[in-house]
Amino acid sequence: MSDTGAPEMPAPPWRSRRRPAAPPRQPLSQERIVDVALRLLDAEGLDAVSMRRVAQELGTGPASLYAHVSGKEELFELMRERVAGEVRIPEPDPARWSEQLRETAREMHRVLSAHADIARVSMATIPTGPNAMRIAEGLLSIMLAGGVPPQIAAWTIDQISLYVTAHVYEASLHMARHRAHGGSAEEYMARFLGQVRDYFSSLPPDRFPNVVRHVGELMSGGGDERFEFGLDLLVRGLESYVAARPAGAGS
């Protein structure tokens, strides 16, 4: 019998060592499932996200996930909704409405671009989660504060979302191709654009005189510059609706 407070005796060398107790496993939840799915998305892209792979990362079986997520489609929706929560929306300022619209579109572009090809999830769907609706409400509030007619503002929400999403999605496709071909993204794009430029220049000038003559203009500008150009087209179009609105017209 050992004395109270006496040093613990070492185990004899012929006895097997006891394994340290494993840390208690965190309970499975929808939030943890989405956390892991987003980590996979950011590291490997959307194609890496499956119920089986997420379950593997959580140290459990796929069947246990279905108590919290109905399937991959709902998981993708939850991921998109989580990402939408990162978008910052300014308080509407009637004097700056057009610039605020540009700022919000840039913010949406920044957030989507930070999460690999999550933009794919937004294609051909209508987001209805609270974070997505917060963005829609913010865009609508900015435009209405600036005097954009309600119907035009309502349709513009869809057009801005589609424009931003398509732009980010295209960039993610180029990133996937560059990973498949190796090398840096800059090297891949320079090589790809160089090939396109050479092809345009080689076209028969009698059939495509303007394309051949304006290859420089067609190939100029990087992704960010072209995004700003498209955004400017959208906002300038909206400004024309405000300018054409009768003085004193209500919303």
Automatic annotation (TrEMBL):
<keyword id="KW-0238">DNA-binding</keyword>
<keyword id="KW-0678">Repressor</keyword>
<protein>
    <submittedName>
        <fullName>TetR family transcriptional regulator ActII</fullName>
    </submittedName>
</protein>
<keyword id="KW-0805">Transcription regulation</keyword>
<dbReference type="Pfam" id="PF00440">
    <property type="entry name" value="TetR_N"/>
</dbReference>
<feature type="DNA-binding region" description="H-T-H motif">
    <location>
        <begin position="50"/>
        <end position="69"/>
    </location>
</feature>
<feature type="domain" description="HTH tetR-type">
    <location>
        <begin position="27"/>
        <end position="87"/>
    </location>
</feature>
<dbReference type="InterPro" id="IPR004111">
    <property type="entry name" value="Repressor_TetR_C"/>
</dbReference>
<dbReference type="InterPro" id="IPR036271">
    <property type="entry name" value="Tet_transcr_reg_TetR-rel_C_sf"/>
</dbReference>
<dbReference type="InterPro" id="IPR009057">
    <property type="entry name" value="Homeodomain-like_sf"/>
</dbReference>
<dbReference type="Pfam" id="PF02909">
    <property type="entry name" value="TetR_C_1"/>
</dbReference>
<dbReference type="InterPro" id="IPR001647">
    <property type="entry name" value="HTH_TetR"/>
</dbReference>
<dbReference type="InterPro" id="IPR050109">
    <property type="entry name" value="HTH-type_TetR-like_transc_reg"/>
</dbReference>
<dbReference type="InterPro" id="IPR003012">
    <property type="entry name" value="Tet_transcr_reg_TetR"/>
</dbReference>
<feature type="region of interest" description="Disordered">
    <location>
        <begin position="1"/>
        <end position="29"/>
    </location>
</feature>
<keyword id="KW-0804">Transcription</keyword>
